[in-house]
Design goal:
109 residues; mainly alpha; 2 helices
């Protein structure tokens, strides 16, 4: 059994295969972009929950110390320590330490 194909038929077959590969790659890129977007949303929600939980814990401890430990140095420690942590975090977040060079395609972020 022999298959006789013309040059036009072979080129058409290669063109169809190339089109299928391009459609497949475009679909995988869109799926990857959608997954990255979903992950970013979950990270933000998780971070927000942790920040609110930590803030509630700090406020609870501060409330207890202020209501039951009036006139002691513990009040200043309980109010000052979270302020120091907050100042440190904000200073690091708002300070530009280095400018990163341009990344090539395919480099990890």
């Amino acid at each position: 059994m022999t298959i006789n194909l013309t040059v036009t038929q072979v080129l058409a077959g290669v063109g169809v295969l190339l089109a299928l590969v391009m459609v497949w790659r475009a679909g995988s890129r869109k799926a990857r972009a959608a997954a990255d977007t979903a992950r970013a949303g979950v990270r933000l929600l998780s971070l927000t929950g942790r920040v609110l939980t930590t803030a509630a814990g700090i406020v609870g401890v501060q409330w207890l110390v202020i209501t039951h430990g009036q006139g002691s140095a513990l009040v200043w420690v309980v109010l000052g320590l979270p302020a120091l942590f907050s100042a440190y975090t904000l200073t690091r977040a708002l300070t530009v330490a280095a400018v990163e060079g341009s990344r090539r395609r395919g480099d990890r972020r």
